[in-house]
Amino acid sequence: MESLRLPKDVLAVLTITVASSFGNGALAPLLGEISNEFNISFTALGALISGFAIARLVIDLPAGGLIDRIRIHMMVYTGGLLSIIGVVVSALAPIYPLLFAGRFIEGSGASVASAAAQAYVARRAPEHERGRMLGSISAAIMLGGFLSPAIVGVVASFAGWRFGLLATVLPTLVALGLVTRYVKHRTTATHSTSLSHQLHGLIYTPGRLLFINLMTIALAFSVFGFKAVYYPVYGTQVLRLEPALVGIAISISALLRFPIAIAAGTLSDKFGRVRVYVPSALLMGLVSVLVSLSDNATTYVLFGLAFGLGGGVVPMVTSMVVDRAPRKRLGVALGTHAFIRDIGVATTPLLLGLAIDGVGYRASAFGLLAFATLSAGLAIAIGDASPRHRCSTPKITSSGSKRPTGSG
After folding, report:
1. What is the CB-side half-sphere exposure of residue 129 using CA atoms within 13 A?
2. In this predicted model, what pLDDT tens digit does every residue of 113-140 receive, in sequence order?
3. SS3 label, residue 135
4. Which DSSP category does 403 fall into?
5. Is a pLDDT exceeding 70 seen at residue 397?
6. Which CATH superfamily is domain 1-183 in?
7. Shortest CA distance to 230 belongs to which of 351, 394, 77, 61?
8. Domain 203-391+399-408: which CATH number of 3.90.1030.10, 1.25.40.10, 1.10.8.60, 1.20.1250.20
């Protein structure tokens, strides 16, 4: 069991990811009270929900570049401070524009801190444990998203939505304290005295990294489209299920993805990324079609659980980026990946909504399966660059014999 434990500094950094995800998910149980107080439309509520994603699109690329030059403590403290300022602005906002501005500021801070945390774990992870440790990041995101609605909702039910928002400051303060306590000033940033290096572009996606990022867009449409749009809308609009039941089904599915993400990372270290990614992606796509055939609450919930079994796809993509990115450009490679991913996340709800309006639920479900299949096909075409796969791949020597390659 000792080998399954994560170092204390990595666990401390993961609390940053939990705190960021906690803040992102805090809005869900507060939307009704916010709508009533500000008397705003559903479109305005949608924009408020998208505040985090919009902030990430703005911050992803510069944050990725800064990670390669600035130590983690400065990034985390800056991100944490911005998050706290954003929460306070939102909680005290007398008008909607200030509420949106606060969410945008909070999302910017969360993006900076989360990017630093991801890069730290990626650099800290030994090659043979990279999948497991990066899988823990996805698990931390799921944990924050799972805990947030319940805790914030309880606070809001007793003290109102403004105090519910203020409650999200506590995980950030705890995370900052743990980072200060356990994360030493490691040399994780790459400092360059070359002006040309400092001015290097913020987008880094050469060769197969480009195809990994294209794979990410296909994955975002199939996975995020299902869990954020298709599944909840089908449950409430087609099956006419109570929102509480749909919410419980979503939470249970998210909870299942928590251990799956960690297990998938460990399996990918042993068997390779592609062998884990492809069946997981295809399973998630197939579940979309199965849900479109569902006609009762029982099968609806069961198919939601089946979707959770494919929870290993997200950490696999991050691991693929880290496997192929040069260490000196790791931050900007992860920033580019996050930026392209968030383009998919930000545009998926609109595109999938248009598809459902235009061709209906059944055809849209097959569209989700098609995108999942596309992402799996791209993964196979890209190939596996995980350390274990490189070690086991035969290499032809000058004498014509085969020997295993090294991990470098």
Report:
1. 13
2. 988 888 888 888 887 787 778 778 878 8
3. helix
4. E
5. no
6. MFS general substrate transporter like domains (1.20.1250.20)
7. 351
8. 1.20.1250.20
